[in-house]
Structures
1.
Amino acid sequence: MARRTRTNRQPRSSGFVQRPFGEVRNPSAPADLISADQVEVIHHTSLKVLRDIGIKVDSGVALDLLQKIGADVDRATGMVRFDPALVEEMITGLPSEFTIHARNPDKTVTVGGNSLTFATVCGPSFVSDLDRGRRAGTLEDMRNFVKLSASLNIFHHEGGAGCEPLDLPAETRHLDMMLAQTTLCDKGWQPCWMNTADRARDCIEMAKIALQTDDDGLRKRPGILGGVNTNSPLLFDDGQAEAVIEFARAGQPVHITPFTLAGAMSPITIGGSLVQQNAEALAGIVLGQAACPGAPVFYGHFTSNVDMKTGSPAFGTPEYAKSVIISGQMARRYGVPIRSSNTTASACVDAQATYESDMSINACVQGHINVMMHAGGWLEGGLTCSFEKLILDAELLQMQAALLDPIDLSNEAIGFDAISEVGPAGHFFGTAHTLARYENAFYSPILSDWRNYEAWEEDGAKTATQRANAIWKQLLHTYEKPPIDPAVEEELEAYVAHRKEVIQA
């Protein structure tokens, strides 16, 4: 199919200054927490897990593929064991970089190397804001979250439509979520629903419509980014395994992300959890390569710990941060991109939500994480999608992006003449050097209030959370739907209607 043309249009002002949309690159060297020898310890112990213990795979389709490449498959139990040499062969020469082509070409991003891609939250069943509190997610909430994702420039990727619309039928709501992602936003996107082959295929078909392309065109120019979680410990269920196969065969990037919580779904030590994570991730990558050699299947991290007093997951912890950075080392060892997450276990948008998210984000930046999922809006360990948290996260991410901006050390920027002009005990407010640069010299915040106490108090003494509440409402008020060819939108709507009829028949 020929791609239809579109026009670029700037959204109406939201009342505050944002960084322009653009790729974020990390110029610093990635952090290493363990030595190269210790990386090899994790790697070889992971291979031992896959050889001696194996991983259970509940999909006949996946078992056929794995048996065909030489894995030891026990059909009676579904257990698959891998010879280390086979794993080494299958993970050699994987794509180290790929491009996600957005509906708006100006918002296409490259993933890999020193790139940082920020994607909004996906998966929560609940939604919260200051006005209505915590509640079950609805279609309206989901659509509003996608609109906000589209409006905030710091987010490169619509990460999963925010909350689940629990007022819609479970078997078809993924279609409404993907319709919102493809029509209300013009960025790249990730489906939240990657738990069956059929839903993965729906995503692929809707991406083809949104980008006006066919199977070959989508394979050459990927337009979506998928992700699956293994069922830790050591299990791939049929839906997740077959979703990997669908995406690999379609040439769409997909990350394999074990859900390893130390002390619950993996050993209580971070080292042990990382070995298990690595084994499960490698098994998933091998499955993707068995489905389609050279497919962009890459490394996913989600190792954290639990609160041993309650059994609840803990996020944004020192243990989480360590596992992020070490996982980055593992991904670089295999030459593939890596995804991780911005996380917090806080139940509300408070100081805990801020410092746990800041811990997570800093670890992702230090570890050169390429795709930061849940970068905006994650609350309560991923159970809740928060509108105020989305704005807080946007501020945290903008600040990190500004930190990574290069420093201008040109003669003009250094301002020797201005220093000479002012001399001792003067000031620089009125110099030509300052006047030429003052509007864009410093970071401009979305959320922070830098006024003195008296001015802040006179204006209502609003907390950051209260200001975030006003900001997301203003963004929704000024939201303008990105341009989309009416014929493309009608084709997407027709696909959704047809699939609903088929599924509900």
2.
Amino acid sequence: GNDFFGDCTRNAEKYIHPSDLANVLETYDRENMVNKLSCDGEYTIVYRSIAGGKVSYMRQVEIMCKDGKHIVCCLENVDAEMREKEEQLLNLRSAERMARRDELTGVKNSNAFKELTDQLDKKIASGSEDVKFGIIMCDINDLKLINDTRGHNFGDEAIQATSRLICKMFHHSPVFRVGGDAFIVVL
């Protein structure tokens, strides 16, 4: 058209997701686009568009023609690709959380405790901070006897009850299950 940049800017609110609008408007600024294309010859932007009330991810590629005067604009629906990436990211975050949680009690596990001790060690070694903390270690007396006489399900219930009690007592501090019946609280 006669005024590609003006038309895009005027109509952007109608078809660009509000969260992506500022980024798209910056892209449709003539000077910005020409500068980017002059440097790289092409560039890509991904944003969410709205059409018929449906939100879809779009990839827009701008390419400077060899004559240096014309721009080719390519638009591709990449909704399925972006949704898959979002799902993968959620799964990864979930797996990372699970890797730091004890399955039986829901408190943090020995992996999370190791990460915390590594962080504390770095703070102490740097000497830049006054690091103050306390450590409380707890365990269940005679858990083996409980498991042997009442069964492992009862032992698991004892571990869960102990975990709840420790969490209630130290509700402002992280609680870690670091072994069968061993818990650590970092104050």
